[in-house]
Each structure stands twice: as C-alpha cells, then as structure tokens.
Design brief:
The chain has about 300 residues and is an all-alpha fold. It is about 60% helix and about 0% strand. The protein has a two-stranded antiparallel ribbon with strand order 1-2. The mean pLDDT is about 95.
C-alpha cells in the first residue's frame, strides 16, 4: 500500500476526476474542499461508486451530488442529535426522580450500592458505575454552576442536579444496574419493557457520541440491535434469513426509538424535518435513486408510515 502524502486542492480535484467524478465549477469545488476537507467528503463516495471494489464513480456523477449527500448527512445528524438530547434530558429527569423518591436525595443515600441490583454477576459493574458517578462529583462538583451551588449552600448534590454533569453513556449504564423494579417503573413510562429500554438507551448513547463528533451517520451500524417489535411488522420490513434488514441497528432503529420515547408532537416535528431533508436531497441527486440512498441508511421505502402507527 502506497504512502498517503499531502495533496494540494488542485491535486485533490485531479484524483476525483481520475475516478470519473465531474467537476463543473473548479473555484467553488476548491473552496468547499478547503473548508470541508477532502477526506470527509470522499467518505460518501461509496454511494456513487460502481461497486465497493470498483472505485470508479457511476457515469455522470458530479461533485455537486457528492457534496449534497455530505450536507444531507450533516443535516440528518444535527436533527438526530437534537432529538436525542431531548430524550437524554427526559430520561435523566425520570431516573433522578425514581432514585430520589426511593432512596433519598443526598448522594450518600442514592449512591448506596444496596440500592442497586444485587445480582452477583453485576457486582463489579455496580461499583464501576457508582465510581464513575462519584468521580464526576469530584471533577465537576465545584466547577458546574448547579452542582457548586448545592455543594456550597447545602453540602450535598441531589440526584436531579447530578444528572446535569453525567454523560448519556453513564446514564445508560446506570439504568443497567438499577433494581428490576426501578427499571420496570421507568420503562413503563415509555410503554416498553426493561430489556428494550436498556437496549434503546445503549443505541441512543452510541448515536449521540457519533453525532457529537460529526462522524458519518448514513451507514453507521451498532453492535446491539433493538428487539423485533410491531413497527417492523406493520411496516412490512423485508427479512433476510428471518432477520429484518432495516430498523434494527441503523438510523431507522433510532427513528423507531424516537417513536417510543418522544412525545407525539416531538416525533411529528422530527419526521417532518427528516422528510424535508430527504425531499431536498431527491432534488439534488440524479445519478443514484433516492430510494437506494435511503436503503443504505436503513430506511424502508415506506418509512413515512411510521408517523401514523399508533
């Protein structure tokens, strides 16, 4: 494998053209490559290649189409991030309410190991998560405005304040070590079971980190998959070897989680925003059918019907 060396903007354009990509405005293309980074835009080339092995672009593919897909992914990523943050705030509020109600509002009370699962297989996990939470108290306790206020005035940090400095990842882990009765109470708020809730939070945390770091979203797949549910069935999502091919560990799985965890108004707004971006992309990309691009993301052709399923 040859060495990767620095390439000027003109050389980057030459590489694109050598692979069959049409450049219609060289000055505009150079400006975009300078601002956005060749590497990041090139990350979407697979959608327009003849095959994964054939690095040639499909005949007629333009840089404008490639860049439009890059921007589409960015916009979808920002929409996804916005609604994950809403759920993050909600679940932090609900978990803190449950723990405070059950075990007290001072950290010495609600962080007592006996308040969490007593499963012998999870003892290490319990102490690991609690230590992460205590570490956040030590690090952020006197730096964050809300936590420092309680420490300085009351000498403790209530759970409903502590969650402000806990990552979604820690919150996801925290749910996993709760007593089953606490897990069930929290999951019931979303009309789901505790196992599905644990997986939902894990996937949301994974996608949140991806969105926060502006990684490529369209072809991202998580290791864990959400359980089969009524949405897969009612949308008649196709299967391969008895496994649904969409909505399990992809972006559409996040849409299904949104359906379960957002309010009806929030979900409708989210779907409208996503649909707008898809329609906009459809008007900018001609070489590849929009349906094919959506399938790459994990969206079935009838994804909009998710909006009307009760």
């Amino acid at each position: 494998m040859g060495k990767k060396t620095f390439k000027t903007l003109d050389e980057q354009i030459e590489i694109f053209e050598s692979k069959g990509l049409k450049i219609t405005d060289y000055d505009k293309t150079k400006d975009i490559l300078f601002r956005e980074n060749y590497f990041f835009i090139n990350g979407y080339r697979h959608l327009f290649q003849k095959s994964y092995k054939d690095i040639e672009f499909l005949p007629g593919t333009t840089f404008d189409e490639l860049y439009a897909t890059f921007l589409f992914d960015r916009n979808i990523r920002n929409i996804t991030f916005k609604y994950i943050l809403i759920i993050e705030n909600n679940i932090k509020s609900i978990i803190s309410y449950q723990l405070s109600k059950q075990y007290g509002f001072k950290e010495k009370d609600y962080l007592d190991p006996k308040n969490f699962t007593q499963d012998s297989m999870k003892v290490r996990q319990v102490y690991d998560v609690l230590n992460k939470m205590k570490r956040q108290i030590r690090i952020n306790g006197k730096q964050h405005t809300a936590t420092s206020h309680y420490l300085n005035n009351y000498g403790y940090i209530p759970m409903w304040i502590l969650v402000k400095v806990l990552s979604f990842g820690i919150i996801s882990e925290l749910y996993g070590i709760l007593k089953i009765e606490d897990q069930v109470s929290i999951a019931a708020f979303y009309n789901t079971d505790s196992e599905s809730m644990a997986i939902n939070l894990a996937l949301l945390s994974n996608f949140r980190n991806l969105c926060a770091h502006e990684d490529i979203l369209y072809d991202h797949r998580t290791q864990r998959s959400i359980p089969d549910n009524k949405y897969h069935n009612l949308l008649e999502i196709p299967k391969i070897e008895n496994e649904y091919i969409y909505g399990k560990n992809d972006l559409f799985a996040i849409m299904i989680i949104f359906k379960q965890m957002l309010t009806d108004r929030e979900f409708r707004d989210m779907m409208n925003e996503v649909s707008y971006e898809i329609d906009a992309l459809d008007g900018k990309v001609n070489t590849v059918p929009t349906r094919l691009l959506l399938n790459k993301i994990g969206f079935p052709d009838n994804f909009r019907e998710l909006l009307n399923i009760n």
